[in-house]
Amino acid sequence: MFFEDLLPYEIPIMETFIKYKVRQIVSIIYKEYNGYIPRVEAPYLIRYFLQFPSQSQVVDEILPEIEKLESSTDKSKELIEVDAFEKHLINLLKTNKYSGYDRETLIEAFRIMDIEKNGYLDLHTFYTFIKRYGITFTKEQIDEMEKFLLENENELLEPLGVNKNDEVIKPKPTTTRKFYYESYCRKVLGDNQEHFNNIMKDYKDFYDKYQELKMFPEMPKIKEEIKEEEKKEGEEKKEGEEKKEGEEKKEGEEKKEGEEEKKEGEEEKKEGEEEKKEGEENKEGEEKKEEEKKEEVKA
Fold first, then answer.
1. What is the pLDDT of residue 172?
2. Are strands 161-162 and 168-169 parallel, antiparallel or unpaired?
3. Phi and psi of 152, rounded to 5°?
4. Do the strands 120-122 and 178-180 form a parallel or antiparallel pair, or are they unpaired?
5. d(Cα 186, Cα 208) in Å, to the nearest integer?
6. Cα angle value 252/255/257 (rounded, 5°)
7. Which residues contact 162 (CB under 8 A, 6 or more apart)?
């Protein structure tokens, strides 16, 4: 699944990514174990990478192989080394040995258990049937499955009945309640596919960064320099815009001031011309008056 269709040079990148994801989980969930993982937690980590061995396969096949890869013998038997777990997990993912079954195979297996061919089973029948084939469930696995069914109750479980008083009849143990196995298979496989897609999205991001750092070790430094250069250019651009805006504002004010002065000059000129005209009219009037006066004296 994870190693399918990879080119030869991509395989070590995927291996590094798997180790990265394991360390990421360990650093959050198992931090207090200082480089170790509790043995009982190994199946859950393996399932995270969409491998689904049975409990007996974990105990009889997987854990013994991990122990062979461990370098330290001076540790608790309840713990396994992260390094050894990573190595064996990568081997499991390459072979895809415990990837589970496709939808049709799973549904066909449920149909064999569904003797009455109703399209549903109760969990008690399911557990009893598979136990006959040597497959056992831990209490945690049973609780996990029942929790999953209850979280998706409307889609997977038969509706609860009601009594004559319209009160909901609750089943005594959860295991007696029937679930629709075709819907269950569709939901589980759909969730698994979504989980796989999310992991591969993380891988793509990891791959891009890995290639970038491998091919251009100085890239982080270069990126920082580019960032600083862009910041500097942005500041210079802003400063230039502010300067230009200031100059335009000053130019506008000077232009406005010049227009006002010109307007005042024109008004003063107009006033002067009016005064001059008025003076000339007054002079003409006085001269006319003087002439009339002389005419009167002569007469």
1. 54
2. antiparallel
3. -115, 40
4. antiparallel
5. 33
6. 110
7. 168, 169
Domain that includes residue 269, residue range: 226-276
Q: What is the pLDDT of residues 208-217, one digit of tens each?
A: 888 776 655 5
How many domains does the chain divide into? Answer: 3
- 80 and 133 share one domain: no
> Which residues in the chain show pLDDT less than 50?
162-163, 168
Burial degree of 42 (CB within 10 A; 0-12, 13-18, 19+): buried
| Sole residue written with tokens 């190595």 | 87
Beta strands 120-122 and 79-81 are unpaired
> 95 and 107 in one domain?
no
pTM for the model stands at 0.60
DSSP states of 203-218: HHHHHHHHHHHHH-TT
Buried b (16+ CB within 10 A) or exposed e, 281-298: eeeeeeeeeeeeeeeeee
Amino acid at 52: F
Tell me the per-residue pLDDT of 33-78, one tens digit each, with 9 for 90 and over: 888 899 989 988 999 999 988 888 898 999 999 999 888 766 678 8
Q: Which position has the token pair 């969990």?
A: 123
| 97 and 116 Cβ atoms separated by less than 8 Å | no
- Tokens matching residue 182: 């075709």
Spacing of C-alpha 76 from chain mean position = 38
Beta bridge pairs of residue 121: 179
In sequence order, the 6+-apart residues with CB closer than 8 A to the CB of 63 are 39, 42, 80
Pairwise CA distance, residues 42 & 37, whole Å: 7
Q: What CATH number does the domain containing 164 carry?
A: 1.10.10
Q: Where are the alpha helices (DSSP H) in the chain?
A: 11-29, 42-48, 55-57, 63-69, 82-95, 103-113, 123-131, 139-151, 153-156, 181-215, 219-298
CB 63 within 8 A of CB 42: yes
